[in-house]
Design brief:
With 390 residues, the chain is mostly beta strands. Helices cover 8% and strands 38% of the residues. The strands form six sheets. A five-stranded mixed β-sheet has the order 10-9-8-7-11, with no helix packed on it.
């Protein structure tokens, strides 16, 4: 019996064999179970990180990283370039971030993994028309450059190595003379387009060749960016209104916030609605798939079944992952809802709270749907927390 028990004991299996087994597990849930079996197996799992993002906690002093299902354990992701005091506005796969190095200026693309940095302009070029004479209908086009202040940003692709532009386009929700702006490598100014998008847009995402932005009224705007022969870009904007009317919050003082992201398969564009109770904080979520109606410009929405997916939501940094099974999904969220001043107040904050974080189970087994499984730290002086997408 003792010999049989020893033969069945896998807890001390050589780490090389365990590593091969671990890397063959495509299901995230199975990898989590693997890491909880014993200390030896957990060590192997920690040295073979999953594709799940890290939680980046910027500060003016020390920037920390927290690993989902791993905590503050080593190994941690590389922080080759650590700009203390920068405000993080968005993130992209491969360790890329859009940052404001001086809070409202000094914008750049920053790769924390490699240390690569691409400077972004601090001005946007706006085209206007004016009449030469009061009684004359002759109009003339002219351009002027205005400061741009980025609230949130996303990218279509990572910036290419060298001097080429590639397929990288950065889109940003801004404040100032325009509410949305676009940039590609090689441009000396941001570009914009005529649009009815207001300055309170909550989030934006890139999906199926289009940039999308969502407002508190659940108006969906989308923009198509194409290259011009002279190295500039052309932006076409289209307003898409939800077919369902906007509904007031169910609780007095409740805040409803929205995020946009592609589904894990890339097939659907998702809108995540987050409900923040005035006393309890975040207490529930709803997930919708946005679909364009046939023969019309409007988008409709339907409840999205969260089977086999894990969503990480944040301004300009949301990402969906396939867990590899058909179990109920969950949503990890950060403390990035501005209770005062709406979305625009992010540029006016002196402290960024880091307490209303956690996860939401889409099919909860317990009355409390929210799990406070993420760290709750002191307020950051420079930036809200953000997902580090590997």
């Amino acid at each position: 019996m003792a010999a049989a028990a020893a033969a069945a004991d896998w807890t001390n299996l050589h780490k090389d064999h365990l590593t091969r087994i671990f890397l063959l597990l495509a299901c995230i849930t199975d990898r989590i179970k693997f890491s909880t079996l014993c200390k030896h197996w957990r060590s192997v799992a920690l040295h073979n990180p999953s594709p799940l993002p890290w939680l980046l906690m910027p500060s003016t002093t020390v920037t920390s990283c927290y690993r989902i299902f791993g905590g503050f354990s080593n190994p941690r992701p590389s922080l080759a370039d650590h700009p203390r005091g920068a405000r993080f506005c968005g993130s992209f796969q491969g360790g890329w971030f859009v940052v404001a190095l001086e809070q409202i200026r000094g914008h750049a693309l920053l790769n924390l993994r490699s240390g690569e940095r691409v400077q972004l302009p601090d001005r946007v070029r706006i085209r206007e028309r004016f009449s030469m004479n009061k009684g004359d209908v002759h109009l003339k086009n002219y351009t002027r450059k205005c400061p741009v202040f980025i609230r949130a940003a996303t990218m279509s692709a990572a910036p290419p190595a060298g001097d080429g532009a590639g397929t990288c386009v950065v889109a940003a929700l801004t404040n100032g003379q325009t509410n949305i702006a676009f940039w590609r490598p090689g441009m000396d100014c941001w570009a914009t387009t005529k649009t009815e998008l207001r300055g309170d847009a909550e989030d934006l995402a890139f999906h199926d060749g289009w940039f999308y932005a969502i407002t508190p009224r659940e108006e969906l705007f989308r923009y198509k960016v194409s290259n011009r022969a002279n190295g500039a870009i052309k932006v076409r904007g289209h307003e898409k209104t939800m077919c369902e009317s906007w509904k007031a919050p169910l609780v007095s003082g409740e805040i409803v916030s929205r995020y946009l992201l592609p589904s894990a398969s890339g097939k659907d564009l998702l809108m995540v609605k987050r409900y923040v109770h005035p006393a309890r904080g975040t207490w529930r979520f709803q997930v919708f798939a946005l679909q364009q109606q046939e023969g019309g410009p409007a988008f409709c929405r339907r409840f999205y079944r969260m089977w086999g997916q894990v969503l990480f939501v944040g301004r300009g940094c949301s990402k969906a992952f396939d867990t590899g099974n058909r179990q109920a999904g969950c949503i990890f969220f950060l403390d990035d809802v501005c209770p005062r001043g709406g979305a625009m107040s992010v540029l006016q904050q002196k402290q960024y709270l880091c307490t209303d974080t956690g996860s939401f189970s889409c099919l909860p087994r317990h009355p409390d749907e929210i799990s406070r499984c993420l760290p709750q730290g002191m307020a950051s002086e420079s930036s809200p927390w953000i997902w580090y997408l590997q």
